[in-house]
Batch of 3 targets.
Target 1
Amino acid sequence: MAGDGERNAKGEGGALQGRPSQVVRRTPWEYTPAPESRDVVRIKDRYDLFIGGRFVPPLSERWRTTIDPSTEESLAEVAEAGEEDVARAVEAAREAWDTSWRDLPGKERAKYVYRIARELQERSREFAVLETIDGGKPIKESRDVDLPLAAAHFFYYAGWADKLDYAFVGRRARPLGVAGQIIPWNFPLLMAAWKLAPALAAGDTAVLKPAETTPLTALLLAEVLQDVELPPGVVNIVTGGGETGAALVHQPGVDKIAFTGSTEVGKAIQRTVASSGKRLTLELGGKAANIVFDDAPLDQAVEGIVNGIYFNQGHVCCAGSRLLVQESLFEPVVEKLKARLGTLRVGDPLDKNTDIGAINSKQQLEKIEELVASGTEEGAEIYQPECHLPERGFWFAPTLFTGVSQSHRIAKEEIFGPVLSILTFRTPEEAVEKANNTPYGLSAGVWTEKGSRILWMAQRMRAGVVWANTYNRFDPSSPFGGYKESGFGREGGVHGLEPYLELEPVTGNGGRRG
Ligand code: NAI
Ligand code: MG
């Protein structure tokens, strides 16, 4: 360990053991620190629950600390909602639905949703800095991706609120009632937007449960909801861990559960919800194939591979974590990737030049370390660029594995970290077979100059989203969701409204049928 307060991240059998052509090219200049100022955010010592339009202390009388994963410094105490608290939040949501929200004309609901979008834009710097402090993601991502997309989601769904009568031909749309929404820590505010925007546009009320490591932007959003004078109880925010989430799933007053998170918890929720009459959508894990054909534009593909797996430290359900390279291109792709990894800047998430921030939690870091160790034990070859990681906090160097076979755990299991497994293929048929050889089915990438091949591949891959010559592109008008163990239901687009609506068939003359 170096004595200068930094430790060397290079793993065993790492970078510099490669052939001379594979030695990492380091950036030939040093960057001056360029930290974004924290002054724009004001973090309170303690946060209560947001129920019925007000912050109220938890009946549970329990709080838990949220930390900055890049320093392990405590940021705030956040209420841990118990069974009774969750019940109160659901009651508040039900009352708001019965007394105001369900009967409010769509054009009036839209105004609130627009106001939320606009306030998010106005306060985007504050939100971005807070997101980065609480969760560890690079400020350039929270600033340029999470915040603009969160605002765009509210703008987009605001536009649907007064058009529900025309959106579903032959079906009449009615709001469902109370939605219970449980979100993860990888895109905290953006996932809150994905859940709340369509619910509000549809005329539902909501109880949102943020993830325990990243509750602060949802709580700042609660302040926005107060500012825009959203009727009390239309959105309630109950912070806490898995038990709080489970309590929300169990509540009889909830009409629909929307969950994004691990496949394991998703399956448990599905068992609980079965035969309760509650609607359910699940957006779970992934192990996406990013497939590079030998006619692909090489440099563009390398950037897409890097974006696909190292974006947000690889804490991305649709991350391109399995790279499938056509055999003849294997060496140049690996060589270029190794060189590119050496230029990625790992460190202070608030620094505007940082590419890879902190791993979200100690628990997640341990999961990544365990899976990476299994990769080496099972015989794959690890590569990490020379890179200095801060002494405190949770960090993992960008990593790639070659010599990976389909049976290796690193080729099968979701690592949810900055770790790429590289495999090869010879023919398009083999690429499809390998891409689909997974219990997941969320996303995939195809890199080729040939348009017909893109279509051929897209038709054969069991993945909810297929990106062609790009990766990790999002737009609120485009539906997102998976097959198989990646879950079901779609978010985004008109498809994302359906899970929040009761859609009844209408007869030709507008009357009801059956
Ligand atoms: P998780 O599934 O436990 O957490 C996601 C959310 O569910 C959090 O808000 C959590 O408090 C809540 N939750 C936990 N247990 C619950 C229960 N029994 N009932 C209701 N809600 C519950 O995920 P975790 O443990 O944080 O991460 C484990 C792995 O899951 C990751 O390593 C990654 O592979 C995967 N994951 C996938 C995500 C995705 O976007 N698809 C997001 C987060 C994690
Ligand atoms: Mg935190």
Target 2
Amino acid sequence: MSNKSVEDMNEIVSLSKSRGFIFQSSEIYGGLGSCWDYGPLGVELKNNIKDSWWKAMTYREDVEGIDASILMHPQVWKASGHVDGFSDPMVDCKECNSRFRADKIDLNAPCEKCKAKDSFTEPREFNLMFETSMGPVKDSASVVYLRPETAQGIFTNFLNVQKTMRKKLPFGIAQIGKAFRNEITPGNFIFRTREFEQMEMQYFVTPGTQMDAMEKWKEIRFQWHLDNGLDADKLRWHDHGTELAHYADAAFDIEYKFPIGWDEMEGIHSRTDFDLSRHAEHSGKNLNYVDVQDGNKKYLPYVLETSVGCDRHLLAIMCNAYTVENPGEKEERVVMKFKPHLAPIKVAVMPLMKKEPLQDAARLILANLQKKYKCEYDIAGSIGKRYRRQDEIGTPYCVTIDYDTLEDNAVTVRDRDSMTQERIAITELQTYLLNKFGF
Ligand code: ATP
């Protein structure tokens, strides 16, 4: 059997739209640039990803979760450096008005959109933060920003969490939430958008131990991507080496081989005490940690950050899962080979015919299964067509109810990957699925 994996991002874009994973935002109005809506299957997949991250990161002794607000005091962004420094140099093509990041193109080459030569403006700074105003009066005092990263909500709550949860170093604070960046060159579907979701953790450590923390978290984070099903040969490390942000003392990215090439999916950065010291300075508050294990010594911890884009990881998961078996042949089938814990639909329940006794039996099984699993009830078309449709959305198991079911109280369970079918007693079905899924 020959298999084909994804070659072109458009294969994922079109499956996403036709099968209800991701739609263009405001589509009936012609769409809004680089904004996307998750449909019924997309939101399930995304929630499953967030759930797998949350459990991996916070169901442990040394990490707590929070959910900070998107709008924060404007001083936060002064302190973090985003007001003054969060900008990408950009150039415009004077011929076609396309805008590019100056660091991403060859400024001496012709414009890649309209092919005009020497048409670029001088690079200009462009702040990536979205501004809005708070309250009824719009003046400079009311300006607030949509957060461009979730991390700052963690730094500002560092002592709240440490004290209320009685944490000792090293410990981490994790959160999942929306971030907004007015990206100059968004695109490649959900790879780079202006509104996206981040899953970030800041791990607070005693200064001097940050490299041990780096080693530990590099391993944990890489393994998470493998556990979610990404192929090892499509993952690699990028070491920032000496090209570091001014506040960092080491930085690594986990890159994935997308159809558009290798690119960053997660950053693991050692940020020193830069953020806490800036917030201490700007807020006038003492943010020191009191180390009771070391003679009540007071100091600002160092921070090791792990930051992964939920949407970008989801895109990698979709690209990695996409498989065309026997391409071009009669037996061709498209299968989304999601790991079962990520699959949007866990079980499809299918009465063989629309006849009432079969539907009654099927609905009873559905009612039982969906107490635990997201299921789909599918009665449209031939069984073969229904299997193909479930393959395309990555449903691990299909349960078929036929006339024999009414006699022997058993159903046929079909496995997505092997396509094998087994006859299982209805009373055994829950246990059978529990053993298969492991949850
Ligand atoms: P890039 O170089 O791609 O702009 P970055 O280095 O600015 O990314 P970070 O600030 O380190 O990214 O953000 C951490 C993670 O958040 C990234 O690895 C990525 O997965 C995600 N991310 C950042 N910007 C976007 C965006 N515009 N759209 C979707 N995800 C994003």
Target 3
Amino acid sequence: MKAAMTTDTPAPESRSLNFIEEIMEADLADGKHGGRICTRFPPEPNGYLHIGHAKSICINFGLARKYGGSTNLRFDDTNPTKEEVEYVDSIRDDVRWLGFDWAGEHYASDYFQFLYDYAEHLVQTGRAYVCDLDDEAIRDYRGNFFKAGRNSPYRDRGVEENLQLFRAMRAGAFEDGARVLRAKIDMQSPNMNMRDPLMYRIRRVHHHRTGHAWPIYPMYDYAHGVSDAIERVTHSICTLEFEDHRPLYDWFLEQDTDGRFFQRPLPRQIEFARLNLTYTVMSKRRLLELVKEGHVQGWDDPRMPTITGLRRRGYTPESIRAFADKVGVAKRDMVADVGLLEHCVREDLAAKARRAMAVLRPLKLVIENLAEGEVHWLDVANHPEDAALGRRKVPFSRELFIEREDFQEVPPKKWFRLAPGAEVRLKNACLVRCTQVIKDAAGEPVELRCTWDPASLGGDAPDGRKVKGTLHWVSAAHAVQAEVRLYDRLFTAKDPMDVPEGSDWRGGINPGSCEVLSGAWLEPALAGAKASERFQFERLGYFVADLDSRPGAPVFNRTVGLKDSWAKLETQGNG
Ligand code: ATP
Ligand code: MG
């Protein structure tokens, strides 16, 4: 049940409270937690964060910031085999890059002893038992949505025996999978999560922080709420698929009937809709497959929906935060249009990025009535509206490069760009008229001969004649050669996972999602661009200097083109 995104999102200032804000404000008004707000962002360090996580980060950190509270970063590292230190570091970087900082940095593994002690308490009070059924039998006994479960034959083990077995599990006496610890709740519950869920399983594997200290590992549902309560989180915000787990979240915490383990009031779980994006896959598992199978260059490939990929693509933290804000907080799953994300970065960069000229696919243009060696250094503003972004000198000389696609020998109707005999404006420079086309043996134009009107330098012709087309260009003698990478959507399919039974979602990968141009030319001011510096290349789009850039050998990535189809849809009101 995926609802289409609505486009009439009101501006943040005028927006009414979302349902999480309503809960928080009510709790603040009641003095529920003594006026405290504490949230947490709990990633599992088994991959890089993606735009969906960014949404969760913006909600958790954003709400705490709004209400003068704090947010913990908690690595949910209860699943030892999949977790890696590389991921922990990347998660920290990504959260900071997005513009947030955490109050406490925690690891669920720091609570292993506490979790164990509380589990023993549940065993001692008859609320948990050791079960010897194997995975398959447990599943079978659990029943299903239509069929009530049956009690495990081990359910009525005595407290002493349970305690002894659980301690032996902890001491490493049993093989992986030999036994589990289960909560004793209700095998007839209509909520499957309440049918004696697993609390611990035996896994004698190495953990990235605790080494071999623990042969047993707590399950997510058990560890999560307890970790929240230990940290005195007030509002534990998670995605909708945990809605059915909420009674279990509460159950685990409420078994501390005499308040020996947790301070009151207990944290409250609140669910919101997971963010999905068109033309991409989102789950870490799928993204890992893309990386491992070489469909992309790595987690930070600019086509990836990861935070690190978006960053390398040229996205700003502000644009991602604006996107999260526009998407809003919903209670129903939704798919946001990637066009909205692109709109957000375009809007941000339109205001911030310096302008520059670059020619991606060059065609030489020679101005015959301009002397060889004559150079006009034009004084050009870096931004049409923001003088604070400064000015630069742009060389104009006899030999230039223009964009090959800006010339047509036999132009169609309403062609305002260059053609034999036609006159155009060179951006920031002057008017030129094409007088001759020089072609190669195959009949392809390789050079245009032109004349310029020196009286038009810096603007229009004094006689007031109209010229409609304006082209970008660079001076050949001064230009710097560069590699430019043009990225497109990674999938041609709007919903890559929507494939017929038996076909592979990888079939939707866009074979043209990265085009590398090695012979682009940049105006000299771009030669020294540092990695992650962002520009608008006039008429072409927004570009960012890539990490692979070297002095004298710049590499730029296209972040996004100039044309905003999202904005158009929005004004038509049918987005
Ligand atoms: P994935 O399914 O992509 O692997 P996950 O839910 O397993 O993601 P976690 O590391 O467990 O990833 O998630 C950390 C936090 O981010 C959780 O609170 C989770 O609910 C939230 N989160 C993950 N994916 C999304 C999403 N698409 N939209 C909103 N929040 C998300
Ligand atoms: Mg997860």
